[in-house]
Amino acid sequence: MNRTPPTDCPAWRKLAELARAPAAISTQSLVADAPGLHLDYSRQRVDAATLAQLAQLARERGFDEWRQALFAGEKINVTEDRAAWHTALRAGDAAPKEVKEVLLHTNSLAGKIREERKFKRIVSIGTGGSDLGPRLLADAFSDGALDVRFAASVDPVELERALIGATPESTLFIVVSKTFTTQETMANAAAAKRWGGKAFYAVTANVEAAKAFGASEVLPMWDWVGGRYSVWSAVSLAGVCAIGPEAFSAFLAGGREMDEHFRSVPIEKNLPALLALLGVWNINFLDARTHAVLPYAHRLRLLPAYLQQLEMESNGKRVDREGRAISYATAPVLWGYEGTPSQHSFHQLLHQGTQVVPVDFIVAGADPVLDANAAAQAEALAHGTSNSSLPAYKQYPGNRPSSTLRLDTLDARGLGRLIAAYEHKVFTQGAIWNINSFDQWGVELGKQLAKRILDGGK
Fold it and tell me: Rounded CA gap, 420 and 257, in Å?
């Protein structure tokens, strides 16, 4: 596997030459298809020569070897000496025995909670990867069978709001923390006890601490699954309570379908790999510093927040796998919001601002008005206005890149495909940039300083 700086690769140097006079957006048809998900990148500033060199760059970076190591469960998370084997969580019959057993128990437990209706309110307490995934699932596809809420912030207002109208006797708290020591999570769990909470389940690797706290059910977390990759696991128990075991199984199946596509399809037609390579082109060669994700579906309104952690915590790194300082850009600032409301807030900057921001439009064919608005925005970014008689403030420069991702179905299976595609995009970019996409040491210092300040500056 290639661990040299990517700037040493011949393809990188050729791409730098192409970037001196990059292709303009044209009307060419550029598409890639995966099961249930379709990528139209016709509005990117690429041509055949650029695409060929991007694919060559992936080969020079050892893409095939890195991909094989990921699915084999090798210890590619070198700074923590562990695997990044989240694909095993959705591997179906091929999953490890313990994964299948925990999935069966998670679905059984959620099914029982939904059927008995002993608990009228479910409150999931976690933060970061222990919150964003199950919260996205519940917000997108809750069927209303249970009232499922979430508390992630150490600000007590969020938990207070999650408990409005609830009673201690009919409320189940699910505490999600790998270590069972996460400051925000444990502060909220203690507050739940003070409120009078009587029923606690836990999802953690620290079984003894969870039982000592009073959890009557403890589901495991494994060290080979990072928090931002854990939505496929028992971490999503609250999400399974909200959407039901059948929908969660479909979610896993969607992720598994994207895994099979990613591991078997050549680079030139590999949807997640192409997402990654287009990002590398925009970031490293066209100098894009931010990236917008705009889902044209209310059910996916929390997706940009989910992807913020996935991309920026994974690839927001300044040293490579060898500990060398990096001289090239890595993860951009990812941001976004639901379309069409975003059209009335920040699209002004996208169309006429001084920064060029690549965009992912996500559509699902659920509503012709939503589809028409997404298509119009992409077209305006790409081709702008041609009427030179308009005053300058009414002109759109165009030539601003975007891609459109279309889901066949806006359901849990479709979301599974979409999230897995972005996971593999992040992994591919990490391989190209020679960084470890699976640690997050950059979050530790702030935690330590906050504790020191709370302890009186000691």
Answer: 9
Chain centre distance of CA 348: 26
Q: Please identify which of the residues 60, 184, 313, 338 carries the catalytic annotation.
A: 313
Q: What is the mean pLDDT of the chain?
A: 97
Percent of the chain with pLDDT strictly greater than 90: 96
Task: Read off the pLDDT of each residue in 83-91 and give the average, rounded to a whole number.
Answer: 98
Question: Could you tell me the two tokens for 424?
Answer: 């593999």
Does 91 reside within a domain?
Answer: no
Instruction: Give strand ranges (E) for 311-371.
Output: 333-336, 359-363
Identify whether 257 is a catalytic site residue. Answer: no
Q: Do both 60 and 115 map to the same domain?
A: no
| Band of residue 173 on the pLDDT scale cut at 50, 70, 90 | very high
Catalytic-residue membership of 344: yes
Catalytic-residue membership of 101? no
400 pLDDT band, cuts 50/70/90, is: very high
Together in a domain, 51 and 190? no
The count of domains in the chain is 2
In angstroms, what CA-CA distances link 103 with 82, 110, 126, 170, 412?
22, 11, 20, 25, 16
Question: Which residue is catalytic, options 115, 116, 344, 444?
Answer: 344
